[in-house]
């Protein structure tokens, strides 16, 4: 495959000739160049430098075991005419280690940015999935559609202090690029301090894999914020999901609705039982739904939608404002896992506009009812339910332009005590907090740090 990279200076365009596979673009732009267009493939180790803006023109593949290093403070953009997508493919690595003061930002190059101007970021590893999706979504070329492997310890690099804005690329119905898509990425990969802002589709979608992550923020994205499937079996701590009541991904009559969490194992056609089973272990989330605010669109769904044979543990979290329901369990295997204690919404706080509990799509209705789910959640799993948001006691969670997720002094949210007693939560990965939710009521509020943005 031939590659061409264009360097656009302030006075003229300097073009590198089409490069052979053994002569990829160099790591340093010519002097005085501050804008670089990137097309095609990167097949040798390459560095993108702070002070230069890199514009993705269509799909850009990091391939051939190359490492793309992106310096702290670097800006990567795209225009709506091409909606650039960065794909770090199997065997290659991304080294995007931003800092709190110098985050790496992927965003729109348009004067009036809109969701979908930037395509998204896709990382593909060699860890284990269950084959639910047969190919990578979003219009990638035929040579890069396959994913999955056998090495759960695989290392796809580093993503730290990264912000992805205005992402999302709809190629066909149900065939889309998300803000950050991780396909069978292994546990050797470092993922923390990532924000997805105003995305056209899902914020985070993890297709299989075993990597772990901390400090993930989904803000005002149209579809699901944490969409986990294909056998994803990693751990996540300190997550935030905030919904704009007036913005979501209307997929018409498909039945697909927008949720804070949507967690599946496999599709109906594949029988829900492919292994490994999707089984995330998560703690210290704060998830904010629309809570029927003025202007809430009709296709909002649930705070939590667990379905299609998934297992899960979500603990020490605060979940509020679900539109249709707070906690929804779909399909027989998912319900049976909850009844058997293999799944749990543990030691958490829940408030919903809609029903707190809902059970749907069971072939065997006697497995679990909404009343039975309530008994398990509030009894065995030690979670508490509140009639109003005020009773939970966060400062200003539904102020979409400037959310304040910190608990008020003396509130239920401030006085609730975390528990890491479940076997899956004993792992050394988890910081053993004394508090529930994403924000320490007695500490610095990390959701107000300078690398994060709101109001978009």
Provide the descriptors you would attach to this structure in a database record.
disordered N terminus, signal, 32 strands, 28-stranded mixed β-sheet, mainly beta, two-stranded antiparallel ribbon, 6% helix, single chain, 456 residues, T9SS C-terminal target domain-containing protein
Protein model, in words:
The protein is mostly beta strands and 456 residues long. It has one domain (28-384, 415-448). 6% of the residues lie in helices and 35% in strands. The protein has four helices and 32 strands. The chain has helices spanning 332-339, 370-380, 389-392, 412-415, and strands at residues 5-8, 13-15, 35-42, 46-48, 53-62, 67-70, 75-78, 85-88, 93-97, 104-108, 120-124, 157-165, 169-172, 175-177, 180-183, 190-197, 204-207, 213-219, 226-229, 235-242, 261-263, 281-288, 302-306, 313-315, 318-322, 325-330, 344-346, 349-352, 355-360, 384-386, 394-396, 404-407. The protein has a 28-stranded mixed beta sheet that branches. Strands 13-14 form a two-stranded antiparallel ribbon. Strands 31-32 form a two-stranded antiparallel ribbon. A hairpin with a 7-residue loop joins strand 31 (394-396) and strand 32 (404-407). The radius of gyration is 22 Å and the shape is globular. The two termini are 38 Å apart. Mean pLDDT is 92; it is low at 1-26. Residues 1-17 form the signal peptide. Keywords: Signal. It comes from Mucilaginibacter oryzae. This is T9SS C-terminal target domain-containing protein.
């Amino acid at each position: 495959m031939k590659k061409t990279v264009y360097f656009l200076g302030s006075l003229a365009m300097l073009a590198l000739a089409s490069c052979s596979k053994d002569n990829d673009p160099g790591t340093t732009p010519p002097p005085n160049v501050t804008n670089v267009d990137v097309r095609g493939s990167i097949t040798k180790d390459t560095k993108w430098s702070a002070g230069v803006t890199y514009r993705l023109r269509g799909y850009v593949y990091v391939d051939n075991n190359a490492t793309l290093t992106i310096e702290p403070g670097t800006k990567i953009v795209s225009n709506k005419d091409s909606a650039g997508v960065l794909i770090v493919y199997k065997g290659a690595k991304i080294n995007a280690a931003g800092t709190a003061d110098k985050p790496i930002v992927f965003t729109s190059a348009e004067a009036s940015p809109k969701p979908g101007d930037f395509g998204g970021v896709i990382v593909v590893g060699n860890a284990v999935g269950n084959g639910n999706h047969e190919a990578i979504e979003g219009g990638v070329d035929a040579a890069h559609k396959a994913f999955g492997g056998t090495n759960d310890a695989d290392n796809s690099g580093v993503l730290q202090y990264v912000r992805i804005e205005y992402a999302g690329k709809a190629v066909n119905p149900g065939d889309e690029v998300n803000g950050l898509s991780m396909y069978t990425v292994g546990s050797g990969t470092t993922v923390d301090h990532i924000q997805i802002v105003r995305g056209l589709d899902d914020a985070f979608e993890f297709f299989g894999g075993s990597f772990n992550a901390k400090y993930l923020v989904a803000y005002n994205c149209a579809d699901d914020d944490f969409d986990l499937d294909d056998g994803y079996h990693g751990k996540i701590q300190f997550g935030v999901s905030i919904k704009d009541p007036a913005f979501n991904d209307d997929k018409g009559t498909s039945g697909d609705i927008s949720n804070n969490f949507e967690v599946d194992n496999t599709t109906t056609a594949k029988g829900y039982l492919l292994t490994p089973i999707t089984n995330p272990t998560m703690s210290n989330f704060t998830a904010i739904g629309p809570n029927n605010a003025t202007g809430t669109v009709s296709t909002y769904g649930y705070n939590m939608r667990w379905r299609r044979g998934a297992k899960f543990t979500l603990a020490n979290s605060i979940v509020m404002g679900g539109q249709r329901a707070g906690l929804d369990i779909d399909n027989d295997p998912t319900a049976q896992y909850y009844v058997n204690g293999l799944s749990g919404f543990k030691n958490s706080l829940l408030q919903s506009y809609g029903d707190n509990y809902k059970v749907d799509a069971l072939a065997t209705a006697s497995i679990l009812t909404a009343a039975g789910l309530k008994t398990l959640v509030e009894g065995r799993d030690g979670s508490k339910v509140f009639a109003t948001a005020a009773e939970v006691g966060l400062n200003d969670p539904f102020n979409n332009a400037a959310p304040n997720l910190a608990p008020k002094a003396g509130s239920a949210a401030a006085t609730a005590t975390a528990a890491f007693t479940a076997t899956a939560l004993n792992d050394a990965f988890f910081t053993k907090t004394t508090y529930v939710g994403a924000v320490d009521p007695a500490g610095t509020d990390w959701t107000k740090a300078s690398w994060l943005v709101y109001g978009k």
